[in-house]
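Hi everyone, sorry if this is the wrong subforum. Our group has a chain we'd like a structural model of before ordering constructs, and none of us has done structure prediction before. Sequence below.
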Amino acid sequence: MRNWSGHVEFTSERFESPSSVTALQALVSGSTTIRALGTAHSFNALADTTGVHVSVADLPGSLEIDSAKGLAWVPAGMRYGEAARLLDAQGWAVHNMASLGHISVAGTIATGTHGSGDRNPTLSASVAGLEMVTAAGDLLTITHDDPSFAGCVVALGALGVTTRVLLRVEPTFGIRQYVIDDVDHESLLAGFDDVFSSAYSVSFFTCWTPELTGKIWMKRREGRDAPLTDAQLAGEPWLGGHLATAKRHPLPEHDAMHCTEQQGALLPWHEALPHFKLDFTPSSGDELQTEYLVPRERAPGLLRDLEALAPRIHPLLHVSEIRTMCADELWLSGAYGRDTVGIHFTWKKVPEVLGLLPEIDALLGPAGGRPHWGKLYESDPAALASRYPRFDDFAGLVATFDPTGKFRNQTLDLLLGSRNVHHDHR
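Answer:
Right subforum, don't worry. Here is the predicted structure as tokens:
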């Protein structure tokens, strides 16, 4: 078994996909070491185990919507895009989505995966409750009024196996998506706040070429964001570039047929907030990914600093994406306690990438950069933990929920270090 990109070979002794919660409880309680595995879109060994890998994708269940409270129970193993379709069919939405709808709900939340938008928190921040199987095999429900709740959402699979997630929902809405070509880095950085506040969701894609130009993906919420002016629609220079005259792919010279519709077409939220259509595979998986979540106020300066590495980044890169998100209160979220900017790299699958990761961490880490938990990074575990003010509290939760280390693995052992008892996973 391997992850989605094929470069991580899992070390589990077997894979199980129980068809009932009762069977899952028995499996968890009877296992010495076990880890939940979602759609395997992680790019590191966070999801690995030397024991049992378990999927919750075959558990029975459907969406349960409480319209009066604006809440919906969603099966943990369901793909985000599938859940979005079902919500929209009943007139509901979640506030945001990731670039891909192909990832599982529980895996998305456990790793702090995010969407985009100055006023939008991470996807994990929409969670109002969790149902999980604990190390003892008990079925536990934790809601937002529990004192430990903020540490249980982005939990890296360290506390239990999630079976259902309670999401806050809102009435469905429409999005119009536009792309702006030939935006130079200097214009972006000089007008950083204006650019990223110009729509409900904004992404900047760059390949760090010598010209230092890129494209802006702008997703405008119908009824909330002002429509484009006639001059803008006519191609007037805008944000240092101009409105694209044809559908674009984030990667230069790639066919855009798998991308969600652009050029102002009014679409349901779940068909425009992701960059790629759910019914298509967005790439072959022949890539590696890194992302750092940095403090909003430091982002323009850090991006300027990264320009010094551009000659080395560009040859190893498919594309880089810059996005914003507002602060949340989840202990291990990349946006915990601060407005945040994500600096994302989709690399070519070549070994030279690994040699560049320590330099990227040396640049972004001391500035408070928190690497995405599910992507490639090279950080000292103790230094990484220090970037999260509530990390010791999270370690305490792990000790309480999983005293024998049933859900632990080498990645978690290195991260938790002396904060918890080291367990033998042989």
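For your construct planning: Residues 421-426 have pLDDT under 50 and may be disordered. The first helix runs from residue 21 to 29.
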